[in-house]
Amino acid sequence: MRTAICERLGVEFPLFAFSHCRDVVAAVTNAGGFGVLGAIAYTPEQLDTELTWIDEQVGGRPYGVDVLVPGKVDASALDGGARLAESIPERHRDFVTHLLSKYGVSGPAPVARASADELGRRVTAAGATGLVEVALKHPIGLIASALGPPPPEMVAGARAAGVPVAALVGTVEHARRQVAAGADLIVAQGTEAGGHTGEISTMVLVPQVVDAVAPVPVLAAGGIASGRQMAAAMALGAQGVWCGSVWLTTEEAETAPAVKRKLLAASSLDTVRSRSRTGKPARQLRSAWTEEWDAGQESPGPLGMPLQMLVAETAMQRIGQAAERGEPGAVELANYFVGQVVGQLDRVRPAREVVYEMVSEFGDAVERLARLSR
Amino acid sequence: MRTAICERLGVEFPLFAFSHCRDVVAAVTNAGGFGVLGAIAYTPEQLDTELTWIDEQVGGRPYGVDVLVPGKVDASALDGGARLAESIPERHRDFVTHLLSKYGVSGPAPVARASADELGRRVTAAGATGLVEVALKHPIGLIASALGPPPPEMVAGARAAGVPVAALVGTVEHARRQVAAGADLIVAQGTEAGGHTGEISTMVLVPQVVDAVAPVPVLAAGGIASGRQMAAAMALGAQGVWCGSVWLTTEEAETAPAVKRKLLAASSLDTVRSRSRTGKPARQLRSAWTEEWDAGQESPGPLGMPLQMLVAETAMQRIGQAAERGEPGAVELANYFVGQVVGQLDRVRPAREVVYEMVSEFGDAVERLARLSR
């Protein structure tokens, strides 16, 4: 299966794998797909280490890096060098303390102040650019920008290095804006996707974006975890697919075991678009965490990005540790970003096997369709 | 393009057109598709008249009838022969009066009590069965049941007449239940669809339903208004597609002119799943009506089905008349059931042309896909 984007990026199958785990990225790239490492969790130094490891694994095969550039953040929180953590209102801190106590989560206090500034920097344009500088020292084949348009210095740096820039969008309007800002490749992501996502479904969004930005190539994201779904996305006009959720239950994924069990057991009705983890609507597993923030009587309501991210991630670290110790309240609270395809994920497989099965099922689906129109 | 369902139903293209307008049903059937008349708006006598007209138009080509069988209604409202309209709480009546006044809608009082019992009967199993009895006297090729499983007497009647029964579902669980109740054909409808709809997208839902009910054939609904989307749906494993929204802006549709203009101008972001028109979540154009009921400070919240349907439809009749007179507040309130594909609908075309374009684009999409996998 060859699309123009395969030629351009030197990839065998136009199957892009977004993952925070370097092992998944390397496995997919080595299987003929295109691994993309989500860099948000790393400092520039850590990212350098991860990419060096990937370089050693993939022997020159193509992979990419994804950074988060929010279009709008609560910038006041970053002003004047004030420590970000200090901007979190007392009642939000109190609500987290109340939640952890209500669900009997043991362990140390949740607010890890030391990482607050770091996290804040990482979700701003300046922070993303720092990560991109590190990434461009490696032989990467793609820089992807989630949320906002890529800042001019990121585009300039990537251009100078000959690395295409991809941008994730949830509306036609955003797609046009991203192309105007210099994106070489658009990832049109439907509402069914995991993580930050809009309201329009993949089936509706992809053809509209394809038509709006032509001849800029479009990848489809959201609802894609099988070869039939890959064929459907490409019937809509996409040149390839961008998948995230399907890798969370692979052997290589570092998904916490308690969360992995919840993912394997979940149906497609068990996700929710919630602002409770990052401050922006992001699809994730429905859990006591999302229910308490979104519908709990005592909830102060989520903060904006990046403050809610800070509130959530520091609490989630503690919840995750308690869940691994088997504390039932912590298991109830634990969740992760995942799309509606979670209902299809019912066993742990090597990432390589997922790639091969998707490519094989894609071929079957196309053959079946071709027979119909004869 | 021939699928097993084409053979079984004697149809040229597996393109099913749901419409409340007999002209659309006849035009699609005559163009080689399969028109399905939504019967909820009719009394048994009116339905008989409409079907007689269709019979005269289609010369034996296949068409079907769709009835609404809610799984759960507020049955207490129908008990003891009490007049349904009398069950509407005072504050809901007052809210409608307030809304019409706030938006300056002129005209007579909104509650048409005479039609209340009628409407109530039409959304219950007993009411649906009455419509089905009439439909089965005509040479129909399909009975479709929206919302709940078809009642046993409906299945028995259809079986005796040799007419297959189709059922709309939004989850795998509902699909299994419908097959157990005797459905011969499942319409798996994604959240992006207009009207009553669930939360799971077409891209995610269709393959799961196909696998769960095999070998029962599945049609895909939701997000389908073009040949590319039809090809995508069939790549997912559907044997055909079920479309509703795309007909609303055809020449043949009796869509009110003010609403038609709103549909043509709307983007895919302009729909919302709201309980404000029927009491159950139904996707429709976002308008002052949905905003006031769902987020207005004075809103008493929507009632259940069928009471909210009664509240809404009687008010909407008056709003529609005022909108046609050009009253701006009425135009703000006016809306209609439509899916996210509304963003693709930007001109008025004959229904026949929509069918031909979809079939032609389907062929192009399949050919493009086939070239990719060579």
TrEMBL record, chains A, B:
Entry GO MF terms: nitronate monooxygenase activity
Pfam families per record: NMO
Alphabetized InterPro entries for the sequence: Aldolase_TIM, NMO
Lineage, top ranks: Bacteria, Bacillati, Actinomycetota, Actinomycetes, Streptosporangiales
Name of the protein described by the UniProt record: Monooxygenase
Organism encoding this protein: Nonomuraea glycinis
Keyword set, alphabetical order: Flavoprotein, FMN, Monooxygenase, Oxidoreductase
